[in-house]
């Protein structure tokens, strides 16, 4: 199974760059249920589709990042999985090094 570079952002502020299997089941395991995509020019974020209904905790780090890539006010809850923007065919791509650096404060 192919893997893809990603960043996982937990509601407690923990940010982890990782490799994850590039499939729906693996993405759902990270967010704890059905996924909802938040698409931006620099990244794609997946969060739990039912997060608000299930009362998942707010994710301030993911929320601020989403607001920066979308340019509008959103609130994200639960664990967020961040990948790169979709390619020309709509496939997921690895998270960009600049995004990893921004989120993990790597230089």
Tell me about this structure.
With 107 residues, the protein is of the alpha+beta class. It has one domain (3-104). It has helices at residues 24-31, 60-70, 97-104; strands at residues 3-9, 15-21, 35-39, 44-48, 80-83. It has a 5-stranded antiparallel beta sheet. β3 (35-39) and β4 (44-48) form a beta hairpin. It is globular, with a radius of gyration of 13 Å. The termini are far apart. The mean pLDDT is 92.
Q: Please report the distance between the alpha carbons of the first and last residues.
A: 30 Å
The average pLDDT value, as a whole number, equals 92
How much β-strand is present in the residues? 25-35%
Q: Tally of extended strands?
A: 5
Q: What is the number of helices?
A: 3
Low-confidence stretches: none
Order of helices and strands: EEHEEHEH
What overall form do the CA principal axes indicate?
globular
- Work out the count of structural domains: 1
Structural class call reads alpha+beta
């Amino acid at each position: 199974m192919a893997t893809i570079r990603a960043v996982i952002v937990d509601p407690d502020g923990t940010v982890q760059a990782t490799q994850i299997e590039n499939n729906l089941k693996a993405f759902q395991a990270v967010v704890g249920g059905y996924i909802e995509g938040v698409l931006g020019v620099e990244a794609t974020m997946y969060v739990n589709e039912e997060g608000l209904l299930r009362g998942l905790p707010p994710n301030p780090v993911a929320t601020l990042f989403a607001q920066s890539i979308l340019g509008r006010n959103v609130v994200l809850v639960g664990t967020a999985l961040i990948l790169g923007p979709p390619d020309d065919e709509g496939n997921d791509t690895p998270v960009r090094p600049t995004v990893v650096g921004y989120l993990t404060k790597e230089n």
